[in-house]
Amino acid sequence: MSLLSADHVCVRFGGTEVLHDISLSVQPGEIVTIVGPNGSGKSTLLRALLGIVPAASGRVGRSTGLRVGYVPQRLTLDPTLPMTVRRFLSLPQRVSDAAATAALERVGLRGVERDQMAALSGGQMQRVLLARALLSQPHILILDEPTQGLDQPGEAAFYRLIEEMRAADGVAVLMVSHDLHVVMAASDRVICLNGHICCEGAPRVVSTAPEYRALFGLGTKGALALYQHVHDHDHASPHDHHHHHHDHAHPADAKGHAHHAG
Amino acid sequence: MLDDFLTRAALAGIGLSVATGPLGSFVVWRRMAYFGDATAHAAILGVALALATDLPVGLGTLVVALAMALTVAALTAKGWAIDTMLGVLAHSALAFGLVAVSFVPGVRTDLSAWLFGDILAVSRYDLVFVWTGALSAAALLAWRWQALLTATLNEDLAHASGLNPARERLILTLALAVVVAVAIKVVGALLIAAMLIIPAAAARSTARSPEAMALTATGIGALSVLGGLYLSLWQDTPAGPSIVVVAASLFALLATVGRRFG
């Protein structure tokens, strides 16, 4: 039984179809990553799954009593609103001090309860948002580009944290990203989105799929190499080189698909 | 004790502050200042309609203020440019109200009482009306406090927690209409927004949590009422504007000596 699913969902803004015929599902304990270029409808898809934007056609399904822990892309606090970390963790459900402290410790924060939200660094803010999401004991975490504004070590640490959460609680994770390498290593399944689902599957399968290469392959050699490096650190480096040669082998193929995808 | 007009005036003002503290905080956090203005200006139209139809003025202002607030909320949701639209609606409502009042015989002379309030003429009946309205609005906000705060912080976050931000907006709109209907007697249509915004803005410099800000705003509001009445007696100044003058002075003082003003 899937936690969250989309069945032939289309979303329109005005006359423009932003998402076309999306079908996907997330199973308990699964980490699914949605990748796609800017403007590919990633955030819109999450918002449709959360029920914030209505589907023009198709159906969004949620298992009964589903608890969602949502981490937005960024939280911009109005400077006129005073808010301590501790108070924020009690929105909308009040939690005990002990639970709040435990949740903060889980995400690697200590002694920030009395700090103002506005005074947190980008990385601390993302961790506080994650702590708040965890406090509702969610079945699924939905993360919208959760590492935006973090440096690379911070980003890697954040994704490690997500993997630990899954291992400890069996929570499912659905996240969106436009950066690929670290994200993909942590995922069970990757969905490549560009208005429609171009391809999906295990990270390794997707990263070699022509549709994926068409969207990402040409401009992000460095990122791909880094991904390979992170993911296959026990492999010999010639393996990577082989992949690069493989990239260049079918430029016409990639172009054809790029045209198709656009 | 209630025989004294000054006691009645002070009690009416303090009653109003009970509602304007928390409501004004939301107006500040959500940047609804102009929205409050538009609703208050529309109340003059309500006064005119009530006088023309021999209905209670409180009822007239409540109905028209609510209609105005709902219109603005509906148009905002449809994506109209908010500041232009409020500029059109607020001043048209005021103008229509002033023109409509001129058709009601014998009212022209005490029009300024509705524009600037007449707190020194508050009757026992008015006192009951003010306190009933203010306590209802405050109770409404207290009941929805956690949800309102979450929706104010981030609507997507509220949505993901199973709340409906549109409903919370409606509750604020309703509370605003009630407070406007109540406040028109105390400070008048032109200065209602001042009573909402200035005490809340003054409270911001000292508050570390939303609750502290709302309560401090109520305290500053009540203090402004007492100070304004004293100023009015002492220097024979108009009472409503005197209250706002004291509130503005407190704001300036707190913003200068306060920890910081964001």
Write a structural description:
The complex is a heterodimer of chains A (262) and B (262). Chain A is of the alpha/beta class. Chain A has 2 domains: 4-67 and 138-261, 3-Layer(aba) Sandwich (Rossmann fold); 75-136, no CATH class. Chain A is 42% helix and 22% strand. Chain A is globular and about 50 Å long. In chain A, a hairpin with a 2-residue loop joins strand 1 and strand 2 (16-26). Chain B has 262 residues and is mainly alpha-helical. Chain B has a domain at 5-186: Orthogonal Bundle (ABC transporter involved in vitamin B12 uptake, BtuC). Chain B is built from 12 helices and no strands. Chain B has helices at residues 5-29, 33-53, 57-77, 82-103, 111-116, 124-143, 145-153, 155-160, 165-186, 192-204, 210-235, 239-257. In chain B, helix 1 runs antiparallel to helix 11 (210-235) and helix 3 runs antiparallel to helix 4 (82-103). Chain B is globular and about 55 Å long.
Short description:
The complex is a heterodimer of chains A (262) and B (262). With 262 residues, chain A is of the alpha/beta class.
- Strand fraction of chain B equals under 5%
**Rg over alpha carbons of chain B:** 18 Å
Q: Give the number of helices of chain B.
A: 12
User: Can you write the helix and strand succession of chain B as a string?
Assistant: HHHHHHHHHHHH
The main sheet of chain A orders its strands as: 5-6-7-3-8-9
* Total discrete domains of chain A: 2
Strand content of chain A: 15-25%
**Range of helix content of chain B:** over 70%
Mean pLDDT of chain B: 88
Helicity of chain A, as a percent range: 40-55%
What is the general shape of chain A? globular
Query: In total, how many beta strands of chain B?
Result: 0
Class computed from helices, strands and strand pairing of chain A: alpha/beta
The overall pLDDT average of chain A reads: 79
The topology string of helices and strands of chain A comes to EEEHEEHHHEHEHEEHHHHH
Query: How does the overall form of chain B come out from the CA principal axes?
Result: globular
What characterizes the major β-sheet of chain B? none
CA-based gyration radius of chain A = 19 Å
Report low-confidence residues of chain A grouped into runs of 5 or more: 219-262
What is the level 1 CATH name of the largest domain in chain A? Alpha Beta
Give the distance, in angstroms, between the N- and C-terminal Cα atoms of chain B: 42 Å
